[in-house]
């Protein structure tokens, strides 16, 4: 099982991007899902979190600009990013605990990372 991320790129300040993180393989169950980012010279930070029940939290710097959502039928989590600013430049990673079928083995699964660059 693995997560495959897509949607990163170069965008001007004020622009938008939509990140996707799709689970592949035989997945029985996906836990709460999260997006993290690590900018140049910065520590990794959790950007957004969504529970299986739809409970959502954001780090303060992205509230009202970013929206996390999930599609459990496709084992996919999304991050809609609007009003992007240069300080949002980072490598973004998705994360979740995933249970594989039929083994029921649990994986602490991270996406490969996708670069988001906000610059004029």
Structure write-up:
- The chain has strands spanning 2-6, 9-11, 17-24, 27-38, 45-50, 56-58, 66-71, 76-81, 90-100, 106-110, 114-118.
- By secondary structure, the chain is an all-beta fold.
- The strands form two sheets. Strands 2, 4, 5, 6, 9, 10 and 11 form a seven-stranded mixed sheet that branches. Strands 1-3-8-7 form a four-stranded antiparallel sheet, with no helix packed on it.
- The termini are far apart.
Q: CA-to-CA gap between the ends? A: 38 Å
Determine the fraction of residues in helical runs and give it as a percent range: under 10%
> What percent strand?
over 45%
Mean pLDDT over the full residue set: 96
Structural classification: mainly beta
Which spans of ≥5 residues are poorly predicted at pLDDT below 50? none
- Write down the Rg: 14 Å
Number of helices: 0
Brief write-up:
With 120 residues, this protein is an all-beta fold. It is built from no helices and eleven strands. The strands form two sheets. Strands 2, 4, 5, 6, 9, 10 and 11 form a seven-stranded mixed sheet that branches. A four-stranded antiparallel sheet has the order 1-3-8-7, with no helix packed on it.
Descriptive tags:
mainly beta, 0% helix, elongated
Question: Would you spell out the secondary-structure blueprint of this structure?
Answer:
Layout: E1 2-6, E2 9-11, E3 17-24, E4 27-38, E5 45-50, E6 56-58, E7 66-71, E8 76-81, E9 90-100, E10 106-110, E11 114-118
Parallel strand pairs: 2-11
Antiparallel strand pairs: 1-3, 3-8, 4-5, 4-9, 5-6, 7-8, 9-10, 9-11
């Amino acid at each position: 099982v693995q997560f495959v991320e897509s949607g990163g790129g170069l965008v001007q300040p004020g622009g938008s991007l939509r990140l996707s993180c799709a689970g592949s393989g035989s997945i029985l169950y996906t836990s709460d899902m999260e997006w993290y980012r690590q900018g140049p010279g910065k520590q990794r930070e959790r950007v957004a979190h969504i529970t299986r029940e739809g409970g959502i939290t954001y780090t303060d710097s992205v509230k009202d600009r970013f929206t996390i959502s999930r599609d459990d039928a496709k084992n996919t989590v999304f991050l809609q990013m609007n009003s992007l600013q240069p300080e949002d430049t980072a490598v973004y990673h998705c994360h979740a605990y995933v249970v594989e079928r039929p083994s029921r083995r649990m994986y602490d699964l991270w996406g490969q990372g996708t670069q988001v660059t906000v610059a004029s």
